[in-house]
Amino acid sequence: MKRSKFSGWGVLAAMFFFSFFATAIYSNCLSLYMHPVCNALNLSSTTPWSMINLIAAFTSAAGAIIIAGFYQKKNWKVCMLICIIGSGILFALASICTAIWQFYIIFAISNLFLAGLTQLPVSMLITAWFEDKRSIAMSIAFCGSSIGTAIWSPILSKMIASGNDGYRYAFIFSGGVVTIALVVLCVLFVKRSPQECGQEPYRYNSFKKEKKKQEDQTENTWIGVSKRTGTRSGAFGAMIGTVLLVGALASGVTTHVPNYLISIGWTTQEAGYLLSIYSIVVLVSMLLGGFFMDKVGISNTVLAASTLVILGMLSLAFSQADKKFAWGYCVFFGLSMCLPRLLPSVLTSTVFGTKEYAGIYAFLNLFFLIGAALGSVLTSIVQGIFGYQITWVLYAVFAAMLYICVKAALAAGEKLRKKYPLGETI
């Protein structure tokens, strides 16, 4: 296999831009709409808006499980195009909503489609195309969301702040831009697997030494176990705890930071600029996270990231007295945010292998999305009762629990490898 003919580079580039457009605009920048929409609808608190995340999480989880099956079939690209167009139209239709229940319906349906454009396809395709350096490839693909957020956040913030209907124009603009970009990428660059293209997945040694024997290239490759075996193992319980916590950390904190900053004296545009800087830090985190997972292992990387989460939460807690401390959140918490994108996918393939990766990952993604939804709602409830300071301390505790779950998942994964050293054959 010649390097120039390897289509995986085009797939990697396509997944980068999927993250740049879909994840950045539809997911990462959605929190920018919280304050203006709540004001426009005369809502007394942010809790009704936070329910969008809960509803969307369940529909995204259902969508991921269904779409994972369609992505294994012959007409998978048609399914992806339907997801692109459907999510774009529905996101634009959010501009005409005049009541919170209408937003619930719009985002419930749109997230059925969005599940086929964000973490699921990126994880599936990168896992299929990259056998070696998978963590680094995954980090490159997912860092598109950080770069995208850094670029789109100030643009959308300015558009939203332009007037009372600014957020409505932002919804329409976002739906149109993402739809056009992703249709082009899907048609021209997205390919499901190297086998369907008459190629092989990327192996580092195969590009350095063309004459290296196939058995040497694959001797350390573990096929893994079936979904049935994986979900019945002790590792699955630890994985559920891991994805629930990482989902809660990502959503419960990030969806409320813009509103929190405004509540302590920041303007909407200032909050948008902070989010933009934060996104640049997350970009650095994505690049470093993949590198460190590849070099020093998942466990050590998660330990460092959990420590950074704790420091970030303390920074937010102190920012209530001096809002300048919020910049500490940008640095510390931002550097830990390789976890929501990289950890579920990389840990899943490490613990369970690639035998039935799509099915296991889609099932675990259900719990990730539940964690993300519950995190946002939990923040609204806890801050409403105890205030934001106690809320940030709670998430620092979650970070410590996350590391414990990851260690347990890796230990259970080693037991699966010992039980099925050549992978499960049934």
- Main beta-sheet annotation: none
Q: Percent range for helical residues?
A: over 70%
The pLDDT mean sits at: 87
Approximate shape: globular
- C-alpha end-to-end distance: 30 Å
- Structural class call reads mainly alpha
Query: What fraction of residues sit in β-strands?
Result: under 5%
What is the alpha-carbon Rg in Å? Answer: 21 Å
What does this molecule look like?
This protein is an all-alpha fold and 426 residues long. It has helices at 8-28, 34-40, 47-70, 76-93, 100-114, 119-129, 134-160, 166-188, 204-208, 214-218, 227-231, 234-254, 257-263, 268-295, 298-319, 326-336, 339-352, 357-386, 388-419.
Summarize the structure in short:
The chain is built from 19 helices and no strands.
What are the key terms here?
426 residues, mainly alpha, 19 helices, globular
Write the layout of secondary structure elements.
Elements (H helix, E strand, L loop, with lengths): L7 H21 L5 H7 L6 H24 L5 H18 L6 H15 L4 H11 L4 H27 L5 H23 L15 H5 L5 H5 L8 H5 L2 H21 L2 H7 L4 H28 L2 H22 L6 H11 L2 H14 L4 H30 L1 H32 L7
Helix pairs in contact: 1-6, 1-7, 1-8, 3-5, 3-18, 4-5, 4-8, 6-7, 6-18, 7-8, 7-14, 7-17, 12-17, 12-18, 12-19, 13-14, 14-15, 14-16, 15-16, 15-19, 17-18, 17-19, 18-19
